[in-house]
Amino acid sequence: MELLNDMALFVAVAHSLSFRRAADATGVPNSTLSRRISALEKAIGLRLLHRTTRKVELTEAGQIYYGRCRPIVDEARRAHEQLGQLLAQPSGVLRVSLPVDFATTYMAPLIAEFARRHPGISFEFDLTPRRVDLVSEPFDVAIRMGGLADSNLVARLLARLPVGVYASPRYLEASGVPEHAGDLARHACLGFPKAGRWVLHRGEEVAEVEVGGRFQVNSVGMLRRLAALDLGVILLSEELAADDVAAGRLRRILPAWQGRPTPVYALTETRLLPAKTQRFIEFLQERLTQPCGAHAVT
Predict the structure, then answer these.
(1) Per 3-state DSSP, what percentage of the chain is helix, strand, and coil (rounded to 5)?
(2) Does residue 39 sit in helix, strand or coil?
(3) What angle do CA 127, 195, 161 make, to 5 degrees?
(4) CA distances from 88 to 25, 74, 216, 275 (A)
(5) What pairs with residue 141 in β-bridges?
(6) Burial of 216 from C-beta contacts in 10 A (0-12 / 13-18 / 19+)
(7) CA angle 160, 97, 29 (to 5 degrees)
(8) Which residues contact 273 (CB under 8 A, 6 or more apart)?
(9) Global model pTM greater than 0.85
(10) Do residues 26 and 33 lie in contact, with contact meaning Cβ atoms separated by under 8 Å?
(11) Ramachandran category for residue 196: left, alpha or beta (phi over 0 → left; psi -120 to 50 → alpha)
(12) In the prediction, which pLDDT does 292 show?
């Protein structure tokens, strides 16, 4: 058991490449961590870590040992947690990285519902457009929208959000209501930088529209706000447009036409998840696939 404990401490240090962060994560004092890792290296007969005053790096032996120890430690932790679930509700701090606009506009009520279901869980949310590093940063899960770059992360598809075309009533009064997707080429379309082309579907019919406008923005929330201020047409998921449509700030146009559905993923570093993370992902899959939320995952 002592060997497994030392392996777990080594994995914590190797995962964060920091004795201080590992001490925070494990609750073991920094000095104890250093002493236990040194004893482990002595027992093995090989140096596992290069230590300097500025950073910690894995040696070649450390990389091999980490690769072998990590699954063992994860499986042991998972076994303990599965047994613990028989006695208690999921608990602990759930650290989640979320897309800013989707989180504030759509996910906040879902998070409130999940928090009420699981009073033993506390939360740390990081709302940022950057791609957080789930390997070196202390996140349990990241929620992401759109296509994913190739990586070693585990991606679970939560939903595919339907996408429509919207504009403000005042913009439509001034510029006219498009009757066909191709008409959008003559309108002020608000989009992301380098978007260039919108692909819209009406049944089997496909329209590729070259769009352009005065505003190119890398924030969905800003695009939605500009559209509500009568500055152009926007392609947006129905969930993110719902509040503005209900308030009369935006109006759905070309209702028979759909943009490409926006996929929503939960990203984790491993498939061996603690109960708090597993329950959160399961909850989002349940709620995002209900008729009042997203369409069913395919």
Answers:
(1) 40, 25, 35
(2) helix
(3) 55
(4) 21, 20, 49, 10
(5) 96
(6) middle
(7) 150
(8) 78, 140, 281
(9) no
(10) yes
(11) left
(12) 40
State in Å, rounded, how far the first CA of the chain is from the last one.
44
d(CA 194, CA 24): 42
d(Cα 133, Cα 269) in Å, to the nearest integer? 9
- Token pair listed for 136: 């070196």
Token readout for 23 is 């001490």
Contact 198, 236 (CB under 8 A): no
SS3 call for 239: helix
Cα(150)–Cα(218) distance, integer angstroms? 22
DSSP string, 171-232: HHHHH---SSGGGGGGS-EEB-TT--EEEEEETTEEEEEE---S-B-S-HHHHHHHHHTTS-
* Cα atoms in the Cβ-side hemisphere of radius 13 Å centred on 104: 10
Q: For residue 156, what are the β-bridge partners?
A: 266
Q: How many residues does the chain have?
A: 298
> What's the CA gap between 229 and 90, in Å, rounded?
44
Q: Alpha-carbon distance 140 to 123, whole Å?
A: 11
Pick the closest to residue 22 from 276, 14, 147, 61 (CA basis). Answer: 14
116 CB-near residues (< 8 Å, 6+ apart) = none
Q: What is the mean pLDDT of each run of 10 residues along the chain (298 residues)?
A: 83 90 88 91 91 86 91 84 64 90 88 93 86 78 82 88 95 95 91 80 90 80 93 91 93 94 90 87 87 37
Domains of the chain: 2-84 (1.10.10.10), 89-298 (3.40.190.290)
Question: Which residues neighbour 117 within 8 Å (Cβ) at sequence distance 6 or greater?
Answer: 283
